[in-house]
What does this fold into?
Amino acid sequence: MMEDLHDLYQDLILDHNRRPRNKRLVIDADRKAEGYNPLCGDRVTVYVKVDGDRVVDVAFEGSGCAISTASASLMTESVKGKTLTEAKSLFRRFHGLITGEAEESRDGPGLGKLEVFSGVCKFPARVKCATLAWHTVNAALNDERDPVKTE
Ligand code: ZN
It folds into this structure.
């Protein structure tokens, strides 16, 4: 069990939890979405600035467990600078990794350090923590108005 927990809380996740990147309000955001994971109590608001079809800024605010905070932080780093199409394809690929249904698709950007979350699929209760920020940014990119709920 300790081994598995170590897997789950790898150094990169711990670092992003301690010092989340892009955790700030974006007053002039073009799009914004809110997410809530009632299973764990994680809350996140994602702000996106879009120029043409490119995500020029993405940031988040909220509070939650280490996994949800680190995932939101790494999500902002991964999505920033991508086109809308690339960002959505990254969401699908990340979702596949976490739920253990990874596709072999070679299209679009690779996951890079997001692979650190691959151990999460062994912990079903944590899957929603890891995917919350991604579902939320996906809703923002699709300009959906309804809050995201993982249940
Ligand atoms: Zn959580």
User: Anything to note?
Assistant: The helical segments are 2-8, 11-18, 66-79, 84-99, 124-141. Residues 124-141 form the longest helix (18 residues). Residues 37, 40, 42, 64-65, 67-68, 129 surround zinc ion (CB under 6 Å).
